[in-house]
Amino acid sequence: MKRIAVVEDEIFMREELLDLLHKAGYQADGISDFEDVAGQVLGLSPDLALLDLNLPGASGFQVCRELKQKSAVPVLVLTSRDQLRDELHALDLGADEYLTKPCRKERLLARVANVLKRYEGRQNLMEGPGFLLDRQTYTLYIHGNSAILPKNQGKILEVFLTHGEEAVPKEELYMAIWGTMEYIDENALQVNLTRLKKTMANLNMRLQVVPVRGVGYRLVPEPGQG
Ligand code: CA
Q1: How far away, in angstroms, is 149 Cα from ligand 1 center?
Q2: In angstroms, what is the span from residue 64 Cα to ligand 1's centroid?
Q3: Which secondary-structure segment (H or E) carries 194?
Q4: Which one in 51, 96, 99, 135 has a CA-CA gap of 20 to 30 Å to 215?
Q5: Ligand 1 centroid vs 116 CA: distance in angstroms?
Q6: pLDDT in tens, 176-185
Q7: Looking at the domain 3-118, which fold is it?
């Protein structure tokens, strides 16, 4: 059953939405405390977030931005704000759909189903600069092609992607590859990093692994790639 997180501060409206979604066969959960909304939504691991824009505390725009930075969850904005600039701003922040209130039930359910369908099979995909990585199969989708990475390389790349361009401690890489930090010497890690670098070069990914003294490594775009 698909899970939908409902972010709506008007209680009556929220109850109505939850009821509508339940009846349509979804598992729907509402947020009733508007502190750290994005964190709460992500805590529910939903397949879709239904998001109001005018909220107490952080605005729906901020929540949308945070959700999109931290996850691949689709966001459907449902708001009384009917200005085009609000819609464009929300879409710019990564919102997948924008609907204005009042909205017919049929229309809302159709859009929900549509967004869910678009994301079908994408739950395992992580986004890197210019490519996608399936964290289950370590299939890399790039430049309209796909390649399956050897397991260790896939694990390393997955860890790098969860850190963005921040440094990844060596220990975290050891744990990801071998599940332990014991009896592992740095050469073994080096060998795997070298293989990954070679793979990335062959696939023309334009990324570099750079050492960070005393910490570990970072994955960054090649100079000139911004
Ligand atoms: Ca509201």
Answers
A1: 45
A2: 14
A3: helix 186-202
A4: 135
A5: 23
A6: 999 988 877 8
A7: Rossmann fold (3.40.50)
